[in-house]
Design goal:
By secondary structure, this protein is of the alpha+beta class. It folds into two domains: about 1-30; about 35-125, Copper binding periplasmic protein CusF (OB fold (Dihydrolipoamide Acetyltransferase, E2P)), CATH 2.40.50.320. It has helices at about 5-30, 80-85, 110-125; strands at about 35-45, 50-55, 60-75, 75-80, 90-100, 100-110. Mean pLDDT is about 75; it is low at about 20-25 and about 115-128.
Length: about 130
C-alpha cells in the first residue's frame, strides 16, 4: 500500500492539532487569574523566616505571603520584613493579589501617612 506524502502530512497535522486543542483547556485550568485587593488592619504577627504577615482586619485574622518584590514602608521610610516583626500592633494597609488561595503582598504601608489619615478620619467623626 502506497501512502501519499499529502495524506501523511494531513494525518500529522491533524494529530498535532488535536493534541494542541486538548492541552489548551488543561493549561487554562492551571492558570488562575490573580485578583488585586487592599485591606487595612493591625499587624498581629510576622514570621520573617516563612515570610508571612498576619493582619487583624474587620473580617478577622488574615495571613499574607511576603515576596521578594514586596514594597514595605513604615511612614515615609522603606522597611524590611525584619522591621515588620517589631511593628506588631501598628495599623497597616496591605495591597495584595490572590491566586489559588494565596494572598501575595505587593506592598505594605505601616503607620505614617496611612495612620495619619485613619487618625484624622476618627477624630473628625467624634462630636466636639
Amino acid at each position: 500500500m502506497k501512502v501519499s506524502w499529502h495524506a501523511t502530512a494531513l494525518a500529522v497535522s491533524l494529530s498535532l492539532g488535536t493534541v494542541g486543542v486538548m492541552a489548551a483547556p488543561v493549561a487554562a485550568a492551571r492558570v488562575a487569574k490573580a485578583s488585586a485587593a487592599t485591606v487595612s488592619g493591625t499587624i498581629k504577627s510576622v514570621d520573617a523566616s516563612a515570610k508571612t504577615l498576619t493582619l487583624t482586619t474587620a473580617k478577622g485574622d488574615e495571613t499574607f505571603t511576603l515576596g521578594d518584590k514586596t514594597s514595605i514602608h513604615h511612614g515615609s521610610k522603606a522597611a524590611s520584613v525584619a522591621d515588620l516583626s517589631s511593628l506588631s500592633g501598628q495599623p497597616a494597609k496591605v495591597h495584595y493579589t490572590e491566586s489559588n488561595g494565596t494572598k501575595m503582598v505587593t506592598s505594605v504601608m505601616v503607620g505614617g501617612a496611612h495612620h495619619a489619615e485613619h487618625k484624622a478620619a476618627s477624630s473628625s467623626a467624634k462630636p466636639k
